[in-house]
Amino acid sequence: MGLTGTALAIDAGNSKTDVALVTADGRLLGTARGGGFQPPVVGVGRAVDVLAPLVRSVLDQAGLTGPVEHLSAFLANADLPVEEADLTAEVAGRGWARTVSVRNDTFALLRAGLPDDGEPVGVAVVCGAGINCVGLGHQGALARFPSIGRISGDWGGGSHLADEALWCAARAEDGRGEPTGLARALPAHFGLTTMLELIEALHLRALPDHRRHELTPLLFAVAASGDQVARGIVVRQAEEIALLAAIALERLGLLGEPAPVVLGGGVLAARHPLLHEQITRLLSERAPKAVPHVVTAPPVLGAALDTLDRAGAEAGAYGRLRGAWG
After folding, report:
1. For 140, left (φ over 0), alpha (ψ -120 to 50), or beta?
2. Is the dihedral of CA 48, 52, 55, 58 positive or negative?
């Protein structure tokens, strides 16, 4: 059934969730933001509970009660077909919409970065707290990676980079590793003097674990100063991003034609010069016809655009919706 009235667009990541209410002609009726979406930690039902007050909020903003025509949900941790099926059943059971579609949240980034006309073809790599890559080819071909962590071969993302920085800094201080400015910069950020003090503070929870994410920007700052150890970590991240994109393009048979490579997530959206330059260089070697570009619009825009796609919306609706997010 096509969208004839209103639709809910959801982008739920590990750290935050965005919900929007849109119309088939591209008007934005309401938005709401909430906490992270983590089914592996709290279970599917409790994870979807996080969405409920946000859905109520956007409906209230428009003076509606629901259900809407369609709900497009792009969810973190919907990495395997069984997870997508479980989440689809849970979301559909809430009665928020007459029809429901659920996909991994990286597809929202991809949709936000693709043109609004023509066949949707391209690849997206997200590097935020974690890392993932998806791609769409001709005739609906699909490229995906499990993206479950180390057991599925993943390397990188903000959390991983913070841990790499800690590892290298700890070894530099005690003599097991190469000297690096990370050994001074990381503890100094928290008002500490040595890595041993920082290790103790993290281990004993004097510093809450979530503050580790503050170390990722420090890693890039130390790399920008010329520190070879920090630069090595950043270059390794660039290699992984370019590799993911090139393999996805190859799987989809897109290496021989210009194809968008959409880059997003907090680490990539920051456009750190070293990281961005390395990704561009490596992609030019491995996928010369790829067209990389960074998307900084919120991924919920991609979810909202998906509702227009399903509605068969007119061209003007897309411009109106994109304009609502600047």
Report:
1. left
2. negative
pLDDT tens-place string over residues 5-46: 899 999 998 889 999 999 999 999 999 999 999 998 999 999
Beta-sheet strands, E only, within 116-236: 122-127, 131-136, 142-144
Q: Give yes or no for a contact between 257 and 289, defined as CB atoms under 8 angstroms apart.
A: yes
The answer on pLDDT for 1 being more than 60 is no
Q: What is the pTM of this model?
A: 0.93
Angle of CA points 203, 207, 212, to nearest 5°: 85
Secondary structure class of 228 (helix, strand, coil): helix
Q: How far apart are CA 34 and CA 313, in angstroms?
A: 28
Confirm if 265 and 11 have CB atoms less than 8 A apart.
no
As a whole number of angstroms, the distance between CA 193 and CA 166 comes to 14
Give CA–CA dist 97/67, Å, rounded: 5
User: Which pLDDT band holds residue 326 (cuts at 50, 70, 90)?
Assistant: confident
Torsion sign, CA atoms 77, 83, 84, 88: negative
Left (φ > 0), alpha (ψ -120 to 50) or beta: where does 226 sit? left
Query: How far is Cα 140 from Cα 119, in angstroms, rounded to an integer?
Result: 9
Rounded distance between C-alpha atoms, residue 210 and residue 14, angstroms: 12
What is the token pair recorded at 215? 């170390």
